[in-house]
Write a structure and sequence with these properties.
Layout: H1 4-9, E1 13-17, H2 22-32, E2 39-43, E3 49-53, E4 61-65, H3 72-88, E5 93-98, H4 117-128, E6 132-136, E7 151-154, H5 157-167, E8 172-176, H6 182-192, E9 195-205, E10 208-215, E11 222-230, H7 234-245, E12 251-258, H8 264-270, E13 275-279, E14 293-296, H9 299-311
Parallel strand pairs: 1-4, 4-5, 5-6, 6-7, 8-9, 8-11, 11-12, 12-13, 13-14
Antiparallel strand pairs: 2-3, 9-10
Helix pairs in contact: 2-9, 3-4
Length: 320
């Protein structure tokens, strides 16, 4: 009788990468002790993308590393084309590893006549031929339900918590910058044995928010503002200003995804933040790195998840 389980586990593991975060893909491959797969991604003169896989992937277990960060549309299209190329090259299973899932903030109809773009992207990835998704710190957890294929949703919390513990910050309060991030901030506060505060904000437009109230005690406390991403840094800087007005002492900020678009770097330069802790899910240009910025690697976390998925063992211990 054929041992199908044995065959599944012994398919060869192959990791490939698009252009959006090649250094992270190389670091993941170092963790897995394998070579990054070879393919070519180019553009025609009119801007159309072209992909060719430069090695045999028939029957292989393929993982494609591609955060859909800026330029989001180009990186999404690159990922879709790569998935199609692997499907047509007879890869046995294709897992899209998307450390940062673009369009995640468009996850519901919050106004009349607007799209749910994160659901559209999920449908496109499935239609292209992805068999599985591996992502990290989705802006909204319910996005997992937008897919009709398995989704493994990791958190960068273990990496961030380890760094924050080493800072040994006394009189600590974790601050959620909005109501939607309370669960995340509470999880951080529990692991750091810290207090919790919540900022009540009202969004006035895209990338614009107004702080209304702070719920919790921050006067005389050292605070860490905890969020899933920093984009234009407007929310973060408004939160810092409000916390300082309430007599908070040292102010830190941590987030998984350092998108840092538009005026973000200028805003962060002028904000009284002692330390900004990010991860490398999104590549951060050298010109955007500030002296008070620390960028932690999630390659080990993603590499461990890829190994577990490939070997068909549990990855649930990585979900906390």
């Amino acid at each position: 009788m054929e041992n199908t389980g044995y065959k599944r586990v012994n398919r060869e593991l192959k990791v490939f990468s698009g252009n959006s975060n090649l250094p992270l893909a190389q670091e993941i491959c170092q963790h897995l002790d394998i070579q990054l797969g070879k393919l070519t991604l180019t553009k025609f003169s009119d801007g159309e993308l072209y992909c060719q896989i430069l090695e045999n992937v028939r029957g292989k277990d393929v993982f494609i590393i591609q955060p859909t960060c800026c330029p989001a549309n180009n990186n999404i299209m690159e990922l879709l084309i790569m998935i199609d190329a692997f499907k047509r090259s007879s890869a046995t299973r294709i897992t899209a590893v998307i450390p940062y899932y673009g369009y995640a903030r468009q996850d519901r109809k919050d106004k009349p006549r607007v799209p749910i773009s994160s659901k559209l992207i999920a449908d496109l990835l499935t239609a292209a031929g992805a068999d599985r998704i591996l992502s990290m710190d989705l802006h909204a957890g319910q996005i997992q339900g937008f897919f009709d294929i398995p989704v493994d949703h990791l958190y960068a919390m273990p990496v961030l918590i380890e760094y924050l513990k080493d800072l040994e910050i006394p009189d600590l309060t974790l601050v959620s910058p909005d109501a939607g991030g309370v669960e995340r901030a509470r999880a951080f506060a529990k692991r750091l044995d810290a207090d919790l505060a919540i900022i009540d904000k009202r969004r006035t437009g895209p990338n614009e928010a107004e702080v209304l109230h702070i719920v919790g005690h921050v006067a005389g406390r050292n605070v860490i503002i905890c969020d899933d991403l920093i984009d234009t840094a407007g929310t973060l800087v408004n939160a810092v200003t409000a916390l300082r007005k309430k007599k908070a002492e040292r102010v830190f900020a941590c987030a998984t995804h350092g998108v840092l678009s538009g005026p973000a770097v200028e805003r962060l330069q002028n904000a009284p933040i002692e330390k900004i802790i990010l991860t490398n899910t999104v590549p951060i240009e050298q010109s955007k790195l500030l002296p008070n910025m620390a960028v932690l690697s999630v390659a080990g976390l993603l590499g461990t998840a890829i190994q577990s998925i490939h070997e068909e063992t549990s990855v649930s211990n990585l979900f906390v």
